[in-house]
Write a sequence for this structure.
């Protein structure tokens, strides 16, 4: 299968600070990526996506950056809030429209 | 819309027992998926379906079966439960719109095989 991994399993940040969660992918043919947020006891929830023809995409308080040269994806959360505490997954869609490959996740702890 | 619903929420099985995990979506999505998530891990694709009557294997299909007789329902069957199948199971659906290939997930079914 494809390899989608994360550099940091746990990230602790102070409330109000910015958070950066990283993800590495292995397949250079991947053309679509999604970040998901998973709160305890719930299913993953879509946050933001990006296609390989873009380097950056912004949402509400979130920004995804894609570096195709080093096959790296990051999620930036501005002014992190306690409600942002969750596990964040990146998912990769290499070449099959129907299949996504998920990383193992990064747990974000927001300290008040 | 209720979105994606799954039943049961939690189940304990004995080794060798069988059960069906139910999944229903009311968004008229053609694509549906079953994933399993082991503790501290990401999601692994078990089976998926691109429409009624069509199913295909994912990364980890062994020990599972699926059917897709309607657009709304995509049940997952475990015939002979094994401890290795202890996991949280998520069902998801998506509409193949080019701009938004996101998947909507259900709340999950937690399965414990003893």
């Amino acid at each position: 299968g494809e390899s989608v991994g994360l550099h940091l399993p746990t990230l602790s940040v102070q409330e109000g600070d910015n958070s950066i969660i990283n993800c590495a992918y292995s397949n250079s043919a991947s053309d679509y990526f999604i970040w998901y947020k998973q709160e305890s006891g719930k299913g993953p929830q879509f946050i933001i996506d990006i296609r390989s023809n873009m380097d950056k995409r912004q949402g509400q308080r979130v920004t995804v950056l894609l570096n195709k040269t080093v096959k790296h994806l990051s999620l930036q959360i501005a002014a992190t809030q306690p409600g942002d505490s969750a596990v964040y997954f990146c998912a990769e869609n290499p070449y099959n429209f129907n299949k996504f490959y998920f990383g193992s996740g990064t747990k974000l702890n927001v300290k008040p | 819309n209720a979105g994606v619903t799954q039943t049961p929420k939690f189940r304990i099985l004995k080794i060798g027992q069988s059960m069906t995990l139910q999944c229903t979506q009311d968004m008229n999505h053609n694509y549906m998926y079953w994933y399993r998530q082991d503790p501290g891990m990401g999601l692994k694709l078990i089976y998926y379906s691109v429409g009624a009557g069509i199913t295909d294997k994912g990364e980890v299909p062994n020990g599972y079966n699926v059917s897709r007789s309607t657009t709304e329902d995509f049940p997952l069957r475990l015939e002979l439960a094994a401890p290795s199948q202890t996991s949280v199971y998520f069902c998801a659906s998506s509409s193949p719109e080019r701009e938004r290939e996101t998947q909507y997930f259900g709340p999950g079914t937690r399965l414990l095989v003893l």
Notes: Chain A is about 0% helix and 55% strand.
